């Protein structure tokens, strides 16, 4: 891959710039934890779709999530290419992030039973969240030397786990003891949690807005036609980026396993008869173990390389899948949650930094558009296969076979990526 001018990483990163960049992970993880994984699915079924049957409410929620993923798949590469050409990666991030935070605040004001408005705001906020992430990832290549990308990516994910976990813990306490916070009941506390998420997200994005530099434009302007031409050029010359293509195939498979674990863990635990409190405790364990684990895995990636670090994390995930097939007691569920925390942030952080080293830095937003696109497409295999195996083989425990296949196949393909040729 031929080096090209456009984005130069500083020889010595500014500590203020690095921490301002990493704090955005702390900011946006509140949405992922409190809204996506925590409160919105429950509020949507019990408050905004209370008049509908549970199956109908779940169908509506499924369509909302699917529409958000479809929109970001259509938007990501084009928006990334336009941002590269026009030199507005940071501005695009802040536009999408602050717009999504405002939509999250509005969501807290939607009255009960108005499921269509709630679903619409949720879809738009989720698109903003995912779009901002691709520009955030792309900013990594300009804030520090490439030798430090693994540790910085780990720092970002670590702060994300800690920030998201702390806010989620506070919101859970408010729901359990609303009177202590001057709230009328659990419903008001859950809605206040959405408002708190919006404020948290907007405020902690301010350091990035103030201190992280905007990468220079690659030229040509941020026109729609120019963005389409740049994507067309990339697709026509994919042979020159073969290591990137092979990596993305591997990433698509193993990140599907990671995503399936996140999406299906609660449903799996409920199917095995665990209580809701057990599932809340497990989620908090994952968040707080993920904080030091992601940072440690980033540092480990600098010592042994990102690929061995990712493969180590996938090995832990295979252990999780095997143990999960035989789980009996809540304490085992907690141990598995801790193992997920150990592996999840490291795999995500090292995947981001390894990919950043494979792509041309001056087109980082465009290439991270493809990266995020594959992350959204990943939901096409894992969750359906997870559910199908449990039904077909007559026991939900057999669903774990789907995870083992995804992690193994992704790891084997990752091993074949020509890293030296890509980085030359």
TrEMBL record:
Chief place of localization: membrane
Membrane topology recorded in Swiss-Prot or TrEMBL: Multi-pass membrane protein
Cell compartment(s), UniProt: Endomembrane system
Chain segments annotated as transmembrane: 21-43, 63-80, 92-110, 116-143, 155-177, 189-209, 244-267, 279-300, 309-327, 333-355, 367-392, 398-417
Signal peptide per UniProt: none
Family annotation (InterPro entries): Atg22-like, ATG22/LtaA_families, MFS_dom, MFS_trans_sf
Domain of life: Bacteria
Domain spans labelled Major facilitator superfamily (MFS) profile: 243-424
Name of the molecule in the record: MFS transporter
